[in-house]
What we know:
This protein is mainly alpha-helical. It has one domain (31-240). The chain has eight helices and no strands. The protein has helices spanning 2-43, 53-81, 90-116, 126-152, 156-162, 164-183, 189-212, 220-240. The longest helix is centred in the N-terminal third of the chain and has 42 residues, at 2-43. The termini are far apart.
Amino acid sequence: MAILYKLAGNLKRGYNVFMNIWQYLLLFSIALIPSFFWLWFFTRYDWQKKEPAALILKVFIWGVLCGFPIIFLEQSLENYFLVGVETSGFLFLVVKSFLVVALLEEGFKMLVVRNKVFYHPAFDERVDGIIYCVTVGLGLAAFENIASIFIEGPSLVFYRFATTTLMHALAAGVMGFFIGAAKFNPDKEKRLIFLGLVIAIIFHGTYNVIVKSAYTQNITYLLIWLLVMFSVVLALIKLTTPTTCRLSPPTNPTRPPE
C-alpha cells in the first residue's frame, strides 16, 4: 500500500511539472503571435524578390537578443543620468522616452541591420531596408511581449498586439526606408542612416510619451498616432516600389532582367 501511495505521489508531481511546462510553452507561444502576425503582414509587400527565410529568421533572433543589453542599459542610464529629476514630472517622462528608451531601442535596431544584413547580397532593393528593420523591430517586440506576459499575464498580449508590437514595427520601418536609400546612395550613407534613426526616435518617443503621460485620459490620442505612423510606413513602402506595391504578384508579372 505504501508503494502505491508513493507511486501516486510521484505521478501527481510529474503531472504538475508537465502542466507547468505546458503552461509556460503556451504563454511563450501567445507572446510570439503579435510579432509573427505583423511580420507576415509587412513581408507580403516584398513579393518581387522575397528575402531568404533564413535571413529573416536571423534578423528576428538578433532583435530578440537585443532585449537583454537594452534592459541593462536603460536601467543604467536612468539611474546615472536622470538622478535628481522628479520621476513623476513631465520632463523626466520626455527625457526617458526620447533619450533613453527610444534612442537605445531604435539604435540597436539600426546596428543589427547595419552590421548583419546591410552588405548581404539579398539586400538588393530599397524596400528591403524596411523589411529588415521591421523584422528586427518585431524581434525586440517579441522579447518585450515574452517578458510582459510572464510578469503580468496573457491578457496583456491583446493590448500589445495592436499597440506596442505594431509601434516597434512602424518606427523601425520608417528608419528602414532611409537605410534602404543609403544602400543605393553610398555617398550619402551616413547622413541618410542618421536621419532615419532620428525620425524613428521621434516616432517611438512620441508614442511612449502618449502612453505614459498622466494627461492622456483615453486611448484616442494613441490610436491617432499609430494611424499616422501606419500611414507613413505604407506610403514609404509604396515609394520604394512605385509600380509594383501589391500584396501579391499579378497573374503574369513582368520582371526586370537579372
